[in-house]
Amino acid sequence: MIAECKCQQCKNPLEFEVSEFQETSRNEYQIFGQFVLCPNCQKETIIYLDYGMPEPPGGWPKQAPVQTDPQPNPLPPALEHSPDIVPVLVENTLDNIGDAFFAAGIIGTIICGIAALMAAVNEGTSLIIIFSICGGVISFAQGWVVKMLFRALAEMIRLLRKMAPPETHETKK
Description:
- Helices cover 46% and strands 16% of the residues.
- The chain has helices spanning 77-80, 85-121, 126-163, and strands at residues 2-6, 13-17, 25-26, 30-37, 44-50.
- The strands form two sheets. The chain has a three-stranded antiparallel sheet, with no helix packed on it. A two-stranded antiparallel ribbon has the order 1-2.
- Mean pLDDT is 75; it is low at 168-173.
């Protein structure tokens, strides 16, 4: 008996022999079989039967599970066996980003201080001197506030990790 379904790639009809159908899985509407090469688009697609199709006595033959290669580990080999290192890296990175913003604030303060000194030496207006000093204070304060925000975020992560229940690892005997 010949059955028909549509290719998932090109949507053209596929015909296959029901006696060669091997069930791999089901959902509420269809019974899925093995992968085949579509004769129309030459791409791999899965054949399927709608539930309206009469099932043979004893059910559809089951296909052996397909062995897939495990996904490669995204961690470098040095970190592969150290799962506790990755979260620490995140927290340290947050601390380092905060430190970088603070350093940028200090650099901005120094630049504004130099501008204020140059304005004073060159007998600039007091307004330029005041703006330079205010810019330095604002730059320093901004760097410090951002550093504290990143440090607080890192500390929250550390605190959540301490509060989390320890992971249990079952060992096979």
